[in-house]
Amino acid sequence: MSKDKNFPTESASSDINVNREYKSSVFKAYFSIKENCLALYNAVSGSNYGDDADIRIETLENSVFLNIYNDVSFVICGTINLYEHQSTVNPNMALRDLFYISHLYKAIAMRDDNDLYGSRLIKVPTPSFVVFYNGRTDAPEEETIKLSDAFEHRTDAPELELTVRFININYGHNQDLMESCVQLRDYSILCHRVRENLDSGMDIREAATRAVDSCIDDNIMRNYLVKEKAGVIEMHVLDYNEEKHARSLREEGREEGLAEGLAEGLTEGLAKGRLTALSQMLSRGGTEDDLRKFLDATDDEIALAKEKCQSSDH
User: Fold this and answer.
1) Could you give the CA distance from residue 278 to residue 307 in angstroms, rounded to a whole number?
2) Within its chain, how far is the Cα of 97 from the centroid?
3) What's the CA gap between 9 and 13, in Å, rounded?
4) Closest by alpha carbon to 51, among 63, 61, 42?
5) Using the 8-state DSSP alphabet, how is residue 123 labeled?
6) Measured distance CA(186)–CA(26) in Å, rounded
7) 117: which residues sit within 8 A by CB, 6+ positions away?
8) Cα-based distances in Å from 314 to 123, 187, 274, 302, 309
C-alpha cells in the first residue's frame, strides 16, 4: 500500500497549533484504503459487495470550507457515501454535510463538459451520510440528525432536507455492526486502548505507542499498524493536541467572559452608586455647582441625578 499523501511522518510537528491541511487522521487514512472502505460500507448498508466492486474515492482533499474538512467519501454502485469521524458530539453535521455534498456534486457535474444550463438532465449519485462517533460524552447507539432541525422556522414538510445517520462506535457499542466489520471493531479497540492508557496517567505519545504495540501483538490492525506505526502514533498525538488546544481555548473564553462580566458589573455598580450620591446631594439642598465642584459631576450625570430626584419625589 502506498502512503496517503497527507500521512504524517516521524518528523511531523506535534505542536498544539496543528495544520489541518497537513494532518490526517487514523480513521481517514485507514478507511480510505479500498478494502477497508468496502468492508465498512457493506456493514453499514447491509450489502455484500466483493473486492471486484467498482469503488471510487471522492474525498475532498486539501479543500477548506468554513474551516472544516471532509473525512472519507466514495462512489459505489450509483451512490455517493460521506463518512465522517467525530470525537465530539456535533449537532451541525447535517449542515456540514450539505456543504460537502455541494462541493462534490459540483465537481461531478462539471466533468465531461456537462452543461448545467443545457436541456439534458445531469445524473448524480444518490447520497448517504454517516457519522461515526467515539468521543467521551455519552451518546446513543444510533440516531438521526436532520438538517431541518436547524431551520429557524420549523415545518412538517421542509423543501430542503438532509439526514445523517449517527453511529456510536465506542468500544462496547453497536456489537452487531462491529462483528460484521472487523476493521471497524479493530479501530474501536485501538482508540479504546489509547484512551485507557491516557486515563492511567501516560502522556499521549506513550499512550499511543503502547496501544499500537499491544494491538500489533494481539493481531488487531496488525498489517496496517506494522507498516504505518510511526504515522499512526503521530496522528494520535496531533489529534489529542488539537482537542486539548480547543478545550484550552474554550476554557480561556469562559474565563475571559467571567472577567469581563465582573468588570462590567463593577463598573455598572459604581455608576449606580455615584448617581445615588449625586441625587442625594441634590435632595439635601446641594446645587449643580456643588456637584461639579465637589464630585466632578458632568452635565449628563447632573441631568440623570435630577431625574432620579424627581422620580423619588413622586
Assistant:
1) 11
2) 12
3) 9
4) 42
5) P
6) 12
7) none
8) 76, 74, 21, 19, 9
Q: Is 216 exposed, middle or buried (0-12, 13-18, 19+ CB in 10 A)?
A: middle
Distance, in Å, from the CA atom of 254 to the CA atom of 23, rounded to the nearest integer, reads 28
Sheet strands side by side (includes 163-168): 55-57, 72-76, 79-86, 126-133, 163-168, 142-146
| Cα gap 33→50, rounded to integer Å | 14
Residues forming beta bridges with residue 86, ordered by sequence position: 133
Cα–Cα distance measured from residue 200 to residue 7, given in angstroms and rounded to the nearest whole number: 28
pLDDT tens-place values along the chain, 314 residues long: 433 333 333 333 333 333 333 335 899 999 999 999 999 999 999 999 987 778 988 877 654 444 546 789 999 999 999 999 998 889 999 999 999 999 899 888 888 788 888 899 999 999 999 999 999 999 999 999 999 999 999 899 999 999 999 999 999 999 999 999 999 999 999 999 999 999 999 999 999 999 999 999 999 999 999 999 999 998 888 877 766 545 555 555 555 555 555 555 555 656 676 777 777 777 777 788 776 766 677 888 888 888 888 877 66
Say if residues 239 and 190 touch (Cβ distance below 8 Å). no
Cell matching residue 245: 488546544
- Helix ranges (DSSP H) in the chain: 26-31, 34-45, 93-109, 175-180, 182-199, 204-217, 222-283, 288-295, 299-313
Q: Please state, in angstroms and as integers, the Cα–Cα distance from residue 69 to each residue in 64, 85, 165, following that order.
A: 6, 11, 18
Q: Residue 147 is which amino acid?
A: L
User: Cell numbers 503521530 correspond to what residue?
Assistant: 234
